[in-house]
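Why should sequence recovery work at all? Because a backbone constrains its sequence more than one might expect. Tight turns favour small or flexible residues, buried strands favour hydrophobic ones, and helices have their own preferences. The token representation captures these environments compactly. In the example below, the structure is given first.
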């Protein structure tokens, strides 16, 4: 039996007002949703290196603060295994731009208590883990349920 394994990062980019950057995801074949910048970790990359690369590729931002892993979520979508690291960074002066219009319609800043719906499943779980202060979380349950679906294991 083949098990799909995915290792990825989600960039929790926070501006001076404490707002989080989310992209309006409109990728063909997927329902529209809001998500963190991020993607797959490439061979030889650390979580932090992948976060810097994904942020640059998806938003054009080159001047964010020092990346720091603040949470790791382990979940099992459709019988696979997914590990997603939340990498927090402080926003610099640069404004995000849409560099991949086939994936994102826009980038917007949101207060943590006013996040839009629906959230992309992996982003929702990661934001829930970061919000709960969990360094390592095992997620289970329904998609888009944030801190309710994660439990601390370390």
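From this structural description, the recovered sequence reads:
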């Amino acid at each position: 039996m083949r098990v799909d394994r995915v290792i990825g990062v989600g960039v929790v980019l926070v501006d001076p007002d404490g707002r989080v950057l989310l992209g309006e995801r409109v990728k063909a074949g997927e329902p529209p949703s809001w998500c963190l910048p991020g993607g797959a970790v490439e061979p030889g990359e650390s979580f932090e290196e992948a976060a810097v690369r994904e942020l640059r590729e998806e938003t054009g931002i080159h001047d964010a603060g020092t990346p720091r892993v603040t949470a790791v979520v382990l979940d099992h979508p459709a019988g696979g295994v997914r590990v997603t690291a939340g990498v927090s960074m402080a926003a610099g002066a640069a404004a995000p731009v849409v560099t991949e219009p086939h994936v994102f319609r826009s980038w917007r800043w949101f207060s943590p208590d006013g996040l839009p719906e629906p959230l992309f499943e992996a982003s929702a779980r990661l934001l829930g883990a970061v919000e709960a202060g969990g360094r390592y979380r095992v997620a289970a349950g329904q998609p888009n349920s944030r801190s309710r679906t994660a439990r601390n294991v370390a």
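A few observations help interpret the result. The domain at 5-152 is CATH 3.90.79.10 (Nucleoside Triphosphate Pyrophosphohydrolase).
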